[in-house]
Amino acid sequence: MFDKVVIGGTFNTLHRGHKAVLDTGFEVGKTVVIGLTSDDFANRIRTTEVLNYEERKHNIIQYIKRFNKDYEIQKITDPYAIATIDPGVDAIVVSKETLMRAEEINAIRAKKCLDELTIIVVPTALAKDGRPISGNLIRKGEIDIDGNLL
């Protein structure tokens, strides 16, 4: 069990892949810090429409309140945020698609003489047709948030 785990993302359409990352964070962490992209940051890194910050935050809270554990949701304006500055963080939960970002975070922490984070990689959640579940496929109406074909 880790004292403080970080998770970051936009969580635009909260789907089974996002839930797997959140589930893992709450399984392995005493406290979970969720870095949620600000509206400006989300719109800079996304090419599709993004729900506003408060809607995305509300959706996350509705999902994670069942864990009954300490958590914090922080608005982030860059991809590194708390993970590169807080010496109390000891693990990061990522998807296979965001593993490279976690490795970058550890490189930045090393330059700052902070301990390396344990990186926990959650397997990619696949739709019924074998494709990775993504907000893009959901928005196109090809799958639902659980990966079922529509």
Walkthrough of the structure:
There is one protein chain. With 150 residues, the chain is an alpha/beta fold. The chain has one domain (2-125): HUPs (Rossmann fold). Helix content is 33%, strand content 23%. The protein has helices at residues 16-28, 39-45, 53-64, 99-111, 135-139; strands spanning 2-9, 29-37, 70-76, 91-95, 118-122. Strands 3-2-1-4-5 form a 5-stranded parallel β-sheet, sandwiched between helices. α1 (16-28) links the parallel β1 and β2 (29-37). The radius of gyration is 15 Å and the shape is globular.
Biggest beta sheet attributes: 5 strands, parallel
Distance between the termini: 39 Å
The proportion of strand residues reads: 15-25%
Q: Spell the H/E element sequence.
A: EHEHHEEHEH
Number of domains: 1
| CATH architectural category | 3-Layer(aba) Sandwich
Could you give a short description of this structure?
It contains five helices and five strands, in the order βαβααββαβα.
Topology:
Blueprint: E1 2-9, H1 16-28, E2 29-37, H2 39-45, H3 53-64, E3 70-76, E4 91-95, H4 99-111, E5 118-122, H5 135-139
Parallel strand pairs: 1-2, 1-4, 2-3, 4-5
